[in-house]
Every structure is written in structure tokens, then in C-alpha cells.
Specification:
About 35% of the residues lie in helices and about 20% in strands. The structure holds adenosine-5'-triphosphate and magnesium ion.
């Protein structure tokens, strides 16, 4: 099926409104339109039947999760291991289908889009994974790794043009265009994670979902990568859904934080309010866990926290981005 798009109409059939030519939102409307909105989100899957004749039981991983993320803002998701954070990330990226509720990106319900429309919608949202060692294909050169989302979306684009775009995003994360011809093993963990961020940037997204983006990195490198994320938010008005168990990361980068426990939002608020006066036992446990691990680790975290705080103080995150760009299908 061919997909024809222009600035005003699309002929991709949407499952929820198949015969209606859809008007993409105007740039001016963006401040009023939430970048990402989850309403009553639930996810469960059937377990094996106990007996062939019995109904399968449902295992519920997320219950009734709701939040709103505005363009250029950051929402943090924290919670203990197994709380459902990555499941939520996969739902937002439309890699899983919710069993209840909805997720809207710029007003469009993602899980009702036809596959071809969803592919185009993915230009506006990209993901950065936790482990920079396994998320980059060791057999591919950096150019090919970074341009992979572009090749999927625009197979007809000339390779030289794609290489040029790859060089641009590589520069934005502090690497050189000569790095395009290298392989992942030639980079440190922090550099690899910057490459992963460059790959996410190449489609010029409005939303980046980062699932534990710095937790696989040495603490001294974490601040570098977080500074890159802060700078990019300032320059491009990116919205972040930032998943982390590290309170230092969430505290300084996020405008609002949700605490997940066994798939439920048990507390939410600004990071300052949440971490200075945690109400729910789960939040209290997360807050208390940080300084009590061991004194040396607490000191290092303090250093990181100070560095992040300094970076934020020197460059307050952009609240209203001027360089916003909406891709045609969203
Ligand atoms: N594909 C799957 N099939 C069955 N159960 C799953 C699947 N993926 C996750 N789970 C279960 O769902 C729950 C939530 O998992 P999830 O990965 O979302 O947690 P998390 O908060 O990201 O944990 P962590 O901090 O360890 O990454 C866990 O109990 C996990 O065992
Ligand atoms: Mg996870």
C-alpha cells in the first residue's frame, strides 16, 4: 500500500476513523495540546490455564495509570524493581497494546492507529534503553546504527543525506562525524549511550522515553549523559518520560514524578515535594534507600546530585521551545 502525505491530509486509513482525512495539529496549537496523555491505562495478560476446562487467570501488570506530559517537560517514573515501569514505557511506545484506557500523543490515540500510520507516528517518539552495550548492534558501524530509524521511515532518502543528518545528531551529543565509521566496541559506555541518544534524535522527535538511561553507567559518566539530555531539552523542547530508580536523576531532571508500586500509581508530585515529604511507604523506602547504601556511595551520589543541580542552575530547562517541529502524521 502506498502512503501519500502532504501538509494537510493523509490517506492512511485509521482504524478508529477510517474514512476521514485527518488534519495534523498546527504548531500554534501545541502549547494547549498535551504531548502525551495516559488515561486509565491498564495492562494484563492471560496466564496458563490451570486446567484445560478452566478460564485463564489474568496477570495484571498495570492498573489505572493516568498522567499528562506537556511538550518540553519531563515526567519521572520511579518504583521498585518489578513495579511495572518498563511495561509502562512499552505501552507508551505502542510496543504493547493496553487492555484498558488509552494513550494519546498530541491528541491521537496511538493503539488505534493502523500499522503504517503508527510507523509514521513513531517519528515523534523515540526510546533510549538502559544498556548501551546490548542496545547497539556490535556488527554495524555507527552511521548505520544511527540512521536505522530514518531508513525504516524514509527508505528512498539518499545515503549521503542520511549520513549528513547522522553527523548532525552526533555533534549534538558531543561526538565527531569521524565517529560515524567506527564500531560500538570503540566507544566507552557513556559515549555509547550518547550514540543511542543520537539515534533517538535523528527523527527529530518531540518525545523521548528513556528507560533507566544512565543506570548502567559509572556514576562519573552519568552526569555527562544527563547534561546532554538537559541541553537537548533546552535546544529542541523535547519532552522526556524518564524512568529511573535513581532519585538523584529524577529529582533534578523532572517536573513531576509518579511513584509506581505493583502497577499502581501510589504517589505523585513535584520531585522536591515528593522527596522532602514522602507519604507512601514505597516512596519513603525509595528516598531512604539512597543515602543508606554505604557512605562512599552516598558521597558519590551527592557529587552527582550537585553536578546535575549545577547544570540545571546554569541552564534552566526550556519551558516553551521555539524549535518545535511536528511530523506530518501527528
Ligand atoms: N513479557 C512478560 N511476560 C510476563 N511477565 C512480565 C513480562 N514482562 C514483565 N513481566 C512482569 O511484569 C512485572 C513488571 O515488569 P517491568 O519490567 O515492567 O518492571 P520494572 O519496574 O521495569 O522493573 P525493573 O526496575 O527491574 O526494570 C514484573 O513482575 C515482571 O516479572
Ligand atoms: Mg524495567
Amino acid at each position: 500500500m502506498t502512503t501519500k502525505t502532504n501538509a494537510h491530509t493523509i490517506d492512511v486509513p485509521f482504524r478508529d476513523m477510517p474514512d476521514i482525512a485527518w488534519q495534523p495539529p498546527q504548531l500554534d496549537a501545541l502549547p494547549e495540546l498535551p504531548l502525551l496523555q495516559a488515561q486509565g491505562l491498564g495492562f494484563s495478560y492471560p496466564l496458563h490455564r490451570r486446567w484445560p476446562w478452566s478460564a485463564p487467570e489474568q496477570q495484571t501488570l498495570l492498573h489505572d495509570v493516568s498522567f499528562t506530559l506537556q511538550t518540553g517537560r519531563s515526567l519521572g517514573i520511579v518504583g521498585a524493581s518489578g513495579a511495572g515501569k518498563s511495561t509502562l514505557a512499552r505501552l507508551v511506545m505502542a510496543l504493547l497494546q493496553p487492555t484498558s484506557g488509552s494513550i494519546r500523543l498530541l491528541g491521537r490515540t496511538l493503539h488505534t492507529l493502523a500499522p503504517s500510520a503508527l510507523r509514521q507516528a513513531r517519528r515523534n517518539m523515540q526510546m533510549v534503553f538502559q544498556d548501551p552495550y546490548s542496545s547497539l548492534d556490535p556488527r554495524q558501524r555507527i552511521e548505520r546504527i544511527i540512521t536505522e530509524p530514518l531508513r525504516a521511515l524514509e527508505p528512498a532518502t539518499q545515503r549521503a543525506a542520511q549520513r549528513e543528518q547522522a553527523a548532525q545528531v552526533l555533534a549534538q551529543v558531543g561526538l565527531r562525524s569521524s565517529d560515524l565509521d567506527k564500531y560500538p566496541h570503540q566507544f566507552s559506555g557513556g559515549q555509547r549511550q550518547r550514540i543511542a541518544i543520537a539515534r533517538a534524535l535523528i527523527t527529530r522527535p518531540l518525545l523521548i522515553v528513556a528507560d533507566e538511561p544512565v543506570s548502567a553507567l559509572d556514576v562519573s559518566v552519568q552526569a555527562q549523559v544527563l547534561n546532554v539530555l538537559i541541553d537537548l531539552q533546552q535546544q529542541h523542547g523535547l519532552g522526556y518520560l524518564l524512568i529511573s530508580h535513581d532519585l538523584a536523576v529524577v529529582q533534578h531532571l523532572c517536573d513531576e514524578v509518579l511513584v509506581l508500586d505493583q502497577g499502581r500509581v501510589v504517589e505523585r508530585g513535584t520531585p522536591q515535594a515528593l522527596f522532602s515529604d514522602p507519604r507512601h511507604p514505597c516512596t519513603q523506602a525509595l528516598v531512604q534507600a539512597v543515602p543508606q547504601i554505604d557512605p562512599g556511595r552516598a558521597r558519590r551520589r551527592q557529587t552527582l546530585r550537585q553536578r546535575i543541580a549545577d547544570a540545571v542552575d546554569d541552564n534552566p530547562p526550556a519551558r516553551h521551545a521555539s524549535a518545535r517541529q511536528v511530523h506530518p502524521l501527528l
